[in-house]
Recover the amino acids of this structure.
């Protein structure tokens, strides 16, 4: 498997603040990798160093085989970054802006197709300054993907999106991943990480405190299950390592359907909150 991003011993300090305190990361080509962590954990700093927009104090970083501290023009054209749209495009329409950016890349995607994928076809002729915050963010995403990048960085991409726009954005990311684009995203939405990411890293206090498949992170898949049901006008629940046996016993007791039956294991959010409370 080819490695798209390799980071070893990355550190970055701002005055007294150790923003990144020794991060090691390997992100495979074609993978969707999510970086999670509380405010101030060091996510943006790490991602901006990988994008070549911030200098590092120490450590090795290789992104598509290049040190982002010494970027080449060819390398830049293979990297997609979602930035806040600059104010100087605010007078231009969505279509004009996306077409203009398409002109900067050798392998740009079709502007109208990208506008459709971010759900802005109805607004293609609208000036950017007349868009809502969430619509404007969708323009940012369109500009990040228009170049047909091999590696796409998304820093909190869906902040300000309504639920429908988020789902539409997820489909765009899934289709880009399906076509082989490597995607690195930071997000505060755990459902987003769970829906999109092959692997996640949880960053806390400038270090990685857990890393893995979101379905099994922190022992989620093998943690005790909670079986819940309704009985005698109240809600009952039981924590167990053998939920199937509990359900069978209940089915026998109720002679068929168990009222309001649920079987749950810790959510990604439960595991995440535990991880950031007790950084190792
Ligand atoms: N330019 C800067 N100058 C000084 N301190 C900074 C600078 N940028 C970030 N920091 C500090 O470094 C730490 C890490 O910040 P960073 O933006 O990387 O966190 P983050 O995980 O992306 O947070 P958020 O979820 O809030 O975006 C924070 O304590 C922040 O205050």
């Amino acid at each position: 498997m080819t490695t798209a991003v390799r980071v070893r011993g990355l550190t970055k300090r701002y005055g007294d603040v150790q923003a990144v305190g020794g991060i090691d990361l390997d992100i495979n080509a074609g993978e969707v990798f999510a970086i999670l962590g509380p405010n101030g954990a060091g996510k943006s700093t790490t991602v901006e160093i990988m994008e070549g927009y911030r200098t590092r104090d120490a450590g090795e970083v290789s992104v598509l085989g290049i040190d982002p501290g010494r970027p080449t023009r060819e390398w830049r054209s293979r990297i997609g970054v979602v930035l806040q749209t600059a104010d100087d495009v605010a007078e231009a329409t969505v279509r004009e802006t996306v077409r203009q950016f398409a002109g900067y890349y050798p392998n740009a995607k079709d502007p109208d197709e990208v506008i459709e994928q971010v759900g802005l076809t109805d607004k293609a002729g609208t000036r950017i300054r007349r868009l809502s915050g969430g619509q404007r963010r969708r323009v940012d995403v369109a500009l990040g993907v228009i170049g047909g990048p091999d590696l796409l960085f998304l820093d909190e991409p869906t902040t300000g999106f309504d639920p429908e726009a988020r789902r539409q954005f997820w489909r765009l990311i899934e289709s880009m991943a399906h076509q082989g684009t490597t995607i690195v995203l930071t997000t505060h939405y755990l459902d987003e990480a769970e829906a999109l990411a092959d692997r996640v890293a949880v960053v806390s206090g400038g270090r990685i405190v857990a890393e893995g498949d979101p379905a099994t992170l922190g022992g989620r898949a093998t943690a005790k299950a909670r079986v819940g049901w309704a009985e005698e006008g109240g809600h009952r629940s039981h924590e167990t390592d053998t939920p199937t046996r509990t359900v069978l016993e209940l089915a026998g007791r109720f002679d068929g359907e168990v009222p309001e039956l649920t079987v749950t294991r810790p959510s990604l959010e439960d595991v995440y909150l535990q991880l950031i409370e007790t950084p190792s």
